[in-house]
Design goal:
Layout (H helix, E strand, L loop, with lengths): L1 E3 L11 E6 L6 E6 L13 E4 L2 E3 L1 H8 L8 E5 L7 E2 L7 E4 L12 H14 L7 E5 L7 H8 L3 E4 L15 E4 L15 E3 L15 E6 L3 E3 L13 E2 L5 E6 L9 E10 L6 H9 L4 E8 L3 E4 L18 E12 L3 E10 L1 E6 L11 E5 L6 E9 L3 E12 L3 E8 L16 E3 L9 E14 L4 E11 L14 E2 L9 E4 L14 E5 L2 E2 L7 E8 L9 E7 L8 E7 L9 E2 L13 E6 L6 E9 L6 E11 L9 E6 L2 E6 L2 E5 L7 E2 L7 E3 L8 E6 L1
Parallel strand pairs: 2-46, 8-12, 9-10, 9-11, 11-12
Antiparallel strand pairs: 1-2, 3-40, 4-32, 5-6, 6-31, 7-30, 8-29, 13-16, 14-15, 14-17, 17-29, 18-28, 19-26, 20-25, 20-28, 21-24, 21-26, 22-23, 22-25, 26-27, 31-40, 32-39, 33-39, 34-38, 34-40, 35-36, 35-39, 36-37, 41-42, 42-45, 43-44, 43-46
C-alpha cells in the first residue's frame, strides 16, 4: 500500500510517497478483509452477521431498563459506535482502600483512623461539612461511618433509584463498599472511595482484587509528602486480629499513588504453577509423597469430566502441587489435540524433540486459580515412537482436581471435550483407541509446601488524581482501541445484554464469504485482534472458526480467546497456552488452516457480558506458500530541513507510482535527503 507523506508548507520539499512490500516473497495473499466499510451492506455482500446491533446509553436505559452499563454495548463496526474503549480520564479524585468493615473502634488503631481522616480531606479538597453517600448503605463501612460523622460530615445511604449519571446530586463523595452494585460510581463526577475487591475492575480503578483473610502487620506510609498522608511517616499498627481484607488488584492505573502499604503474612502455600516448579526443583522446601496410577485423573473433592478420581499421593488435600510423569506411545505420526481440566491450574509438556523438558515443550498452560476449567493444545509428532510427557498442576485451597486427555483422531484444533466427550479419551484409560496412548504406569508425586511464613507488602491505600490535578488522573485500562488498519474494525461489548440471535442462542457471529484455496499449500489466516483487560470471565469468548470445505463441512476452532481464569481478567488464546495476550493495541495472530481446504470460510463467534468487556478484530488475511523472510519496512522523518528515510531491504525509487523502479545507488539506512535533492516528485519503496 502506498501512503503520501504530508509536510509543513513553509519548507519546499518534494512530494514523496513511500511503500513497503515483500515483492520477492513466495507467500501469496489470497484474500483480505479490512472492515473499513460495511461489507454486509455492500453489493455483493462480503460477509454476513447474526445478532448485530448498537445500544448507546439512552437506548440501554429506555429499551433494556439497564442502569449498570456505563458505555455503549454492540456487535458492530467501530464507526457505528460513539466510542470503542474505556474513557481514560478520571471524572474526579479516587481512592482504593483495602479494609474490612468488621474492624471496629476497639480493634482499629488510632493511627489508621487518622490516616482515613486525612485521605478523605484530600478527596474532598478540604471541603467542610460535606455530604457523603455510601453504597449500599452506611452500615457497610462500620466504624468509618462513625468517624466521618464525628468529623462533621453528613453520611447517607445511596439511593439506588438515582441514575449513575446523577449520583453527584446525592452528595459530595461516594463510597462504594462491599454489597454495592458492581460498577456503581465508576463514572461519578464526585470523588469515589472503592472498598470492594471484586468490583475494582468494574470501577476501572485497578484489576480485580481479592478478599483475603489474614492478620495484618503494620501499615507503612509510602508517600509521606502527599497531603492525604496528613503528615504521617513511617509504620504503625492497623488493627488487632484477623480480618478479611479487600485487597487491591495487582495492576494499578498509570500515574496512581500508593499512599500506604500493608504487611501481609503468608504461610507456605501454593497459588501458582511457578510455586510448584520451585517445589519440584527444591528451591522451596516441601513434604513429598509418591504413587503409581493407571489414569491421569486426580480429585480432591472437585468434580471434573471423568470419574476415575484417583486420590492425591499421600492423601494430601487442600493446598498441594502435583507432578505426573509418563510415556506416550505414538503409533501414527501427526498432530493431535490434548486437553487438561484443572482446579486450580496446570501445564502439559511433551518432549517431542526428545532432548528433555523445556519451555518449548509446553503444549497447554492453564494458569489459574480457577474452578474446574478445560484448556486445549496441539502436539505434533514427526514420527511414531515413545515420548516422555508430564503434567504439573496445583490446588490453592478447597477442592481441586487435574485430568488430561487426548483426541481419538489426528488433525489438531479440537476443543470440544465438554460438548463431544466421545471424541476424547482419558490418558491411561483401558482399551484406548487413539493413536496416542500411555505406555506403562504413571508416576505421581505430590508436594505440600513447608518452611517459614513470608511477609510481603501489599497496597493498602492508593490514590488517583482528578481531572484538575497535576498531572490529571487516568482510570485503569482506559483509552480507545488503536493500531487498527485503516478506519474500521468489528467489535463486541456487553453482547449478552440483548437477546442472542435464534440461529445460535449463545453467541453472535460474523461469517466471511468462501475463499477458494483449492490446491494451495501452507494456507494460513492472520487476524488483527485487540481487547480491554478489565473484567472478562471464562464465559466471555471470541472464537476464530474455519470451515475448510464450505459451510457444510465440519468447523475447526482455530483459536478460542477468553479469560484464562475467572480471576485472570485479560483476553488470550486459551487453546494455545494463553498466547497473544490482548490489549488496546491491535496485534496480529496467525493460524494454520487444515491441509486440503477448498472453499474456505472463516467465521468469528463472540460473547461478552459487560460494557467494558470489549474485543475487536480487523484486517483478516488469508495467505498460502512460505515467506522468504520478514516484510521490508520504510519510514520517513523530518530533521530540520532534511528528510531521513529509514528502511530494511533494498530501497528503490521512481519518478511516478507506476515506475520505472530502480535501486537507489549506494543507499544505506538511514538515508538523509537534502532539500537540493528534492526538486520534484519522488516515490520510494523497500523491496526484499
Amino acid at each position: 500500500m502506498y501512503k503520501p507523506h504530508t509536510r509543513p508548507a513553509p519548507v519546499a520539499f518534494a512530494s514523496i510517497l513511500l511503500a513497503s512490500a515483500a515483492f520477492c516473497s513466495a507467500q501469496e495473499l489470497i484474500y483480505q478483509e479490512k472492515f473499513n466499510d460495511d461489507g454486509e451492506a455492500a453489493t455483493p455482500k462480503r460477509y454476513t452477521t447474526t445478532g448485530r446491533d448498537v445500544y448507546e446509553i439512552p437506548r440501554i436505559r429506555s429499551e433494556l431498563s439497564n442502569t449498570d452499563q456505563l458505555g455503549p454495548i454492540y456487535w458492530a463496526h467501530n464507526f457505528e459506535v460513539s466510542f470503542v474503549g474505556v474513557p481514560a480520564p478520571t471524572t474526579a479524585r479516587r481512592m482504593l482502600f483495602a479494609w474490612d468493615a468488621a474492624i471496629d473502634a476497639t480493634t482499629a488503631s488510632p493511627e489508621v483512623l487518622q490516616l482515613w481522616d486525612s485521605s478523605v480531606k484530600w478527596l474532598l479538597n478540604n471541603k467542610a461539612g460535606a455530604k457523603i453517600v455510601v453504597s449500599p448503605n452506611a452500615a457497610a463501612i462500620g466504624v468509618l461511618a462513625d468517624r466521618l460523622t464525628a468529623a462533621g460530615y453528613t453520611v447517607v445511604d445511596d439511593d439506588p433509584a438515582v441514575a449513575e449519571e446523577q449520583i453527584e446530586t446525592q452528595g459530595d463523595l461516594l463510597i462504594h463498599a462491599v454489597g454495592a452494585p458492581g460498577s456503581r460510581g465508576a463514572k461519578a463526577k464526585i470523588p469515589l472511595i472503592a472498598m470492594s475487591s471484586p468490583d475494582l475492575d468494574d470501577l476501572v480503578v485497578s484489576s480485580i482484587g481479592t478478599a483475603t483473610a489474614f492478620e495484618a502487620g503494620n501499615a507503612t506510609i509510602a508517600a509521606p509528602t502527599h497531603p492525604a498522608a496528613g503528615g504521617k511517616t513511617g509504620s504503625f499498627p492497623v488493627a488487632t486480629g484477623s480480618f478479611t481484607w479487600q485487597l487491591l488488584g495487582d495492576q494499578l492505573p498509570v500515574g496512581s499513588t500508593v499512599l500506604a502499604t500493608l504487611t501481609r503474612r503468608i504461610p507456605p502455600t501454593i497459588t501458582a504453577l511457578t510455586n510448584v516448579d520451585a517445589l519440584i526443583s527444591g528451591a522451596k522446601p516441601s513434604d513429598k509423597a509418591t504413587a503409581s496410577v493407571a489414569t491421569l485423573d486426580f480429585s480432591d473433592a472437585s468434580a471434573g469430566n471423568y470419574t476415575d478420581d484417583n486420590p492425591l499421593p499421600g492423601g494430601v488435600a487442600g493446598n498441594w502441587g502435583l507432578r505426573v510423569a509418563g510415556k506416550l506411545n505414538v503409533t501414527a505420526a501427526g498432530t493431535y489435540s490434548f486437553a487438561i481440566g484443572t482446579d486450580d491450574g496446570g501445564r502439559l509438556q511433551i518432549d517431542a524433540d526428545k532432548n528433555g523438558f523445556a519451555a518449548s515443550d509446553t503444549i497447554i498452560e492453564s494458569l489459574g486459580p480457577q474452578g474446574h476449567t478445560l484448556a486445549y493444545g496441539n502436539a505434533t509428532f514427526a514420527a511414531a515412537g515413545v515420548y516422555d510427557f508430564q503434567v504439573i498442576s496445583y490446588n490453592s485451597g478447597g477442592g481441586g482436581d487435574v485430568e488430561a486427555s487426548v483426541a481419538k483422531t489426528a488433525g489438531g484444533g479440537k476443543a470440544n471435550l465438554a460438548d463431544v466427550p466421545d471424541d476424547w479419551e482419558l490418558l491411561g484409560t483401558s482399551g484406548a483407541v487413539s493413536p496416542v496412548k500411555v505406555q506403562g504406569a504413571l508416576d505421581a508425586t505430590s508436594y505440600v509446601p513447608t518452611g517459614a511464613t513470608e511477609e510481603v507488602q501489599v497496597p493498602f491505600i492508593v490514590l488517583l488524581n482528578g481531572p484538575n490535578d497535576t498531572p490529571p488522573g487516568a482510570v485503569f485500562g482506559g483509552g480507545p482501541f488503536t493500531a487498527f488498519e485503516g478506519t474500521g474494525f468489528f467489535a463486541i461489548a456487553g453482547g449478552n445484554k440483548w437477546p442472542y440471535p435464534p440461529e445460535h442462542d449463545t453467541y453472535r457471529s460474523l461469517t466471511l464469504n468462501p475463499v477458494n484455496v483449492t490446491g494451495k499449500t501452507n494456507v494460513k489466516v492472520t487476524v488483527a485482534l485487540a481487547a480491554t483487560f478489565l473484567d472478562f470471565e471464562t464465559s466471555d469468548f471470541l472464537d476464530i472458526v474455519a470451515y475448510p470445505k464450505g459451510l457444510s463441512s465440519d468447523p475447526v476452532v482455530l483459536a478460542h480467546y477468553s479469560a484464562p481464569t475467572d480471576a485472570t481478567k485479560y483476553f488470550a488464546d486459551t487453546t494455545h497456552s494463553n498466547t497473544h495476550r490482548l490489549d488496546l493495541n491491535f496485534q496480529d495472530a496467525t493460524y494454520d488452516i487444515p491441509a486440503g481446504a477448498t472453499d474456505l470460510v472463516i467465521e468469528f463467534r463472540a460473547a461478552t457480558t459487560f460494557w467494558n468487556e470489549i474485543v475487536g478484530f480487523d484486517n483478516v488475511r488469508i495467505t498460502s506458500g512460505t515467506a522468504s523472510g520478514g516484510a521490508p519496512t520504510v519510514s520517513i522523518a523530518r530533521s530540520g530541513t532534511d528528510l531521513t528515510l529509514t528502511f530494511t531491504g533494498t530501497l528503490e525509487s521512481a519518478p511516478s507510482i507506476t515506475g520505472q523502479w530502480n535501486a537507489v545507488p549506494g543507499a544505506a539506512s538511514p538515508l538523509v535527503l537534502k532539500p537540493a535533492q528534492l526538486t520534484g516528485a519522488a516515490f520510494y519503496r523497500a523491496k526484499q
